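To illustrate the input format used throughout this study, we show a single complete record. The first block contains the structure-token representation of the backbone; no residue identities are included at this stage. The design step must infer an amino acid for every position from geometry alone.
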């Protein structure tokens, strides 16, 4: 018998450490339900295995004295060569007839890997293995499968690495891609390598630039002066997430806030579409929530506070003419608290700061603004201590002109969010409350709990819930919802505001002042002083006087695409916000039709190439289009998208935005790109920390493959725990799945040698239960429990004197998605002369998955006294009669009256005796 489990005649499964469990469910199902796969792991991992040992396989699987090691070092290269030579995983060509005839397809996609110089560590293949399991499974289920791979190869890290090593980014990127490709191929992933693409391929750049032009022509790509995080040392703009304590995350260089001319994509125009499009997607709840929060749709009120002049008189211009009074516009979702406003706060970068500041406060305000500009938005919002200064100015309350509200400048208000100003209600907002306490500002309570409608002046914390209005004049007694409506209507009557919908989402700053990115296909006219003939001028010369007309952008003609990067010996960043491409004067300036023009020197962000690569994979060799309508109709949308949760917002949001624009332009018939999304959990180092060179906890998959094989790595990562869970890597535990692989190899070798065709009823039923469970687990991507089930099945086969050939074939087929080299080798040993990649997946018989008998517990007066094995459809009388034959039961009912019998079919019988 197997040491993992014992199957007795009654089909009650005895699991080590567990008592027999009576149940109507199959005994096999009980075993799987009760045994956690970690318990099985303890059995598997209890014995060390030398993966390099080889012994001739025994034809008797119960003979443990001669256990052959699976020769992975020979098998894996052999099958990888076979797959490559036979183009086993080439994507089938699909036509519109396939779509009309409902021929099933699965588009399985991994998030675009970035080919870093360090190569893969063992955490990276987890998601790739999960998607590969599904791709292999669906091929065997009869689906047309598209499973491609490519490289997100532009970006700042590649440029920085090239600068540090004194090489060209194109050279280092090519080397990195080659290394990544080698590692992915050695792991046996079933990618269609004929569709391989890289965002740096000039043909791919062409179509990325083409999509930018579609955005430009639709008015969705435009220039704007934006306050950005400028890092002179890196020579580029950084996102808030790339700055820590005022320094760049990469290199620790100082960062400052400066206004720059930037290209922005008007993603805000698609805010509602992006929000509504989430409905119906099979995505993790956390990711859906993150997207909704990032879009941040809010229904509230716009409120205008008129700014008082320093002398409290009518504001006049320098010429003495009366001017329209300045107003501070705020947005709030709680207009019901308007009469609780005790101050107004402006962001340091708000354009009215200098105008509302009095002369007496100008120096301190200016110093505060300059100091704040050196910090990122993320730093400012994350800081526990909120800072600010009083401007000396006041605003007039929109509902009561007798109330003059002081105007402050504070770092917790961001110019990039909302209107850059907030009405501060410290009694009912946590941040405002903390700020008011810190600066001893008044706190006025205007909302109280409905069951305690009285002043809250003694409270030591903000009351942020809804309630009933107090201290609000004519609005007293109204509920929060009633007051929101009433106060908003009053503001509309007074011309001081009204209802409004706003979004947290900001337009996408698309420019990067670096070299290694796609050139933006835009150029501008160059003007010279009046009377100068352009033909006699040359803007490439230092002493030439000219102006670039950035207000007159001209798109590159589509037939002139791609616009390639110039080859530059010196592509290091500089202090010029125009970027290093501004130094490539022969590339930047060109003479055409008797006029000089200047190319855009900003490049696209790394996000650009990854926004549409899933389209290109459907039609990667098309030289006339980015992708055809037929490719879109036959392959899109992506059926399974696997990648890290760190991309839950930006990449997915940007890709959806581009997709929806292309949908509106008629290039795709599908409104959303990714139907199902799965995030794999992070694999940590053995110390429980994120893998990194600095921590010294990185494990190279090359080492694991060399010592124990690619299939061992794949199996271990799928067996470690639920796919979405965070898990620590333990190299010494890989030996457990290595033992399993050896046992599978021996079972199949034994079966191939004996060629037994008959199968006993017990094995037949266990085989069908295994096929059902493994299939269900793969469908649910519960890979760890599927592998556990296969281990149990293999142990049963190993316990047999002779293994039926059909049982071994089913084992090889079910193992193959997880350990494809092992599966192929086993299939070959069983006499098959072609790959099993397209063999039909196993099919179970539901009737054979139901037990004929069940073991039930017998109780006397509520205490367990024995058990019986009966037919699954046995009635109470039959079970009671069998129970009375059990010796221990007889002792407890002998000489007593049977008062009552409680029977739960298939589970338990309880005899009440006195």
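Output of the design step:
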């Amino acid at each position: 018998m197997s040491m993992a489990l014992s199957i007795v005649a009654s089909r009650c499964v005895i699991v080590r450490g567990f008592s027999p469990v009576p149940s109507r469910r199959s005994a096999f199902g009980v075993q799987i339900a009760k045994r956690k796969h970690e318990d099985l792991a303890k059995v598997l991992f209890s014995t060390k295995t030398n993966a390099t040992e080889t012994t001739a396989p025994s034809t008797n699987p119960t003979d443990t004295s001669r256990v052959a090691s699976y020769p992975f070092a020979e098998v894996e290269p052999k099958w990888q060569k076979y797959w490559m030579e036979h183009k086993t995983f080439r994507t089938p060509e699909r036509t519109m007839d396939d779509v009309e005839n409902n021929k099933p397809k699965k588009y399985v996609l991994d998030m675009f890997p970035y080919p870093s110089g360090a190569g893969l560590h063992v955490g990276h293949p987890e998601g790739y293995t999960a998607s590969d399991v599904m791709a292999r499974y669906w091929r065997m289920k009869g689906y047309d499968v598209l499973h491609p791979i490519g490289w997100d190869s532009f970006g700042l890290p590649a440029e920085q690495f090239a600068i540090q090593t004194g090489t060209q980014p194109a050279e280092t990127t090519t080397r990195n891609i080659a290394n990544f490709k080698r590692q992915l191929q050695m792991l046996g992933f079933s990618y269609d390598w004929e569709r391989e693409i890289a965002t740096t391929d000039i043909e791919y750049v062409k179509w990325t630039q083409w999509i930018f032009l579609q955005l430009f022509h639709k008015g969705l790509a435009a220039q704007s002066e934006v306050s950005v995080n400028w890092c002179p040392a890196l020579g580029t703009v950084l996102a808030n997430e790339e700055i820590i304590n005022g320094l760049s995350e990469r290199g620790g260089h100082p960062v400052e806030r400066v206004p720059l001319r930037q290209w922005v994509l008007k993603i805000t125009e698609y805010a509602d579409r992006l929000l509504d499009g989430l409905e119906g997607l099979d995505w993790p709840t956390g990711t859906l929530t993150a997207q909704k929060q990032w879009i941040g749709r809010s229904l509230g009120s716009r409120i205008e506070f008129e700014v008082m002049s320093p002398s409290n008189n009518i504001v006049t211009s320098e010429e003495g003419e009366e001017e329209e009074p300045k107003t501070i516009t705020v947005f709030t979702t709680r207009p019901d608290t308007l009469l609780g406003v005790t101050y107004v706060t402006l962001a340091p970068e708000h354009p009215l700061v200098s105008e509302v500041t009095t002369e007496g406060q100008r120096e301190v305000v200016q110093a505060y603004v300059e100091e704040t500009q050196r910090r990122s938005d993320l730093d400012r919002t994350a800081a526990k201590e909120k800072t600010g200064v009083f401007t000396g100015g006041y605003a007039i309350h929109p509902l009561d002109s007798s109330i003059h509200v002081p105007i402050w400048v504070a770092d917790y208000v961001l110019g990039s969010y909302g209107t850059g100003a907030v009405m501060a209600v410290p009694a009912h907002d946590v941040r405002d409350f903390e700020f008011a306490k810190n600066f001893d500002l008044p706190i006025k309570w205007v909302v109280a709990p409905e069951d305690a409608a009285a002043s809250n002046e003694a409270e030591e914390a903000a009351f942020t819930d809804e309630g009933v209005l107090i201290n609000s004049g004519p609005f007293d007694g109204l509920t929060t919802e009633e007051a929101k409506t009433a106060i908003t209507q009053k503001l509309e009557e007074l011309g001081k505001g009204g209802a409004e919908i706003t979004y947290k989402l900001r337009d996408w700053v698309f420019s990067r002042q670096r070299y290694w990115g796609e050139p933006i296909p835009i150029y501008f006219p160059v003007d010279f002083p009046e009377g100068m003939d352009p033909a006699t001028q040359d803007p490439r010369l230092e002493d030439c006087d000219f102006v670039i007309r950035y207000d007159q952008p001209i798109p590159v003609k589509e037939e002139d695409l791609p616009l390639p990067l110039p080859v530059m010996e010196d592509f290091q960043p500089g202090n010029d916000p125009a970027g290093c491409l501004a130094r490539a004067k022969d590339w930047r300036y060109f003479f055409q039709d008797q006029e000089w023009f200047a190319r855009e020197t900003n490049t696209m962000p790394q996000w650009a190439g990854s926004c549409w690569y899933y389209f290109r994979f459907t039609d990667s060799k098309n030289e006339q289009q980015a992708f055809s309508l037929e490719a879109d109709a036959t392959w899109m949308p992506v059926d399974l998208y696997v990648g890290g949760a760190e991309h839950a917002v930006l990449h997915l949001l940007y890709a959806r935005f581009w997709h929806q624009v292309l949908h509106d332009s008629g290039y795709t018939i599908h409104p959303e790109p990714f139907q199902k999304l799965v995030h794999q959990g992070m694999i940590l180092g053995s110390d429980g920390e994120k893998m990194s060179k600095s921590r010294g906890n990185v494990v190279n998959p090359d080492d694991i493959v060399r010592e124990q094989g690619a299939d061992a790595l794949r199996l271990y990562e799928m067996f470690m725990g639920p796919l979405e869970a965070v898990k620590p890597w333990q190299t010494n535990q890989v030996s457990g799945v290595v033992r399993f692989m050896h046992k599978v190899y021996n079972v199949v070798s034994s079966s191939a040698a004996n060629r037994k065709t008959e199968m006993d009823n017990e094995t037949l039923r266990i085989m069908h239960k295994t096929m059902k469970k493994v299939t269900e687990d793969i469908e649910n991507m519960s890979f760890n429990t599927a592998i556990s089930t296969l281990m149990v099945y293999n142990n049963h086969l190993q316990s047999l004197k002779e293994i039926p050939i059909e049982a071994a074939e089913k084992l090889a087929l079910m193992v193959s998605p997880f350990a494809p080299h092992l599966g192929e080798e086993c299939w070959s040993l069983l006499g098959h002369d072609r790959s099993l990649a397209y063999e039909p997946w196993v099919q179970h018989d539901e009737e054979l998955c139901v037990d004929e008998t069940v073991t039930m517990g017998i109780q006397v007066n509520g205490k367990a006294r024995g058990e019986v094995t009966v037919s699954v459809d046995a009635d109470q009388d039959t079970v009671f009669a069998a129970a009375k034959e059990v010796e221990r039961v007889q002792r407890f009912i002998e000489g007593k009256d049977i008062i009552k019998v409680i029977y739960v079919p298939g589970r338990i019988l309880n005899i009440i005796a006195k």
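Structural context for interpreting the output: The longest strand covers residues 221-231. The two ends are 43 Å apart (CA to CA).
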